[in-house]
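thought: fold this chain, then report.
action: predict
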Amino acid sequence: MAKCDLCDKSVMTGHRISITRSQVSRRANHMWKPNVKKIRIIDNGAVKTINICTRCLRSNKVTRAL
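observation:
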């Protein structure tokens, strides 16, 4: 599913809490997905396609193939 191949960032789960009441009484299950893109990179001279999160892409952890 949504998972970065470099940093292994994946889906986080938790509760979405309703704040319409004064006491926290309503909770709903929620999943937060990372922003993962499928890009082509250069790895040891070969072009590969990997899934990478935008945090790793922005910090120049890979070299993109153009």
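thought: worth noting. The chain has a mean pLDDT of 89.
final: tokens above.
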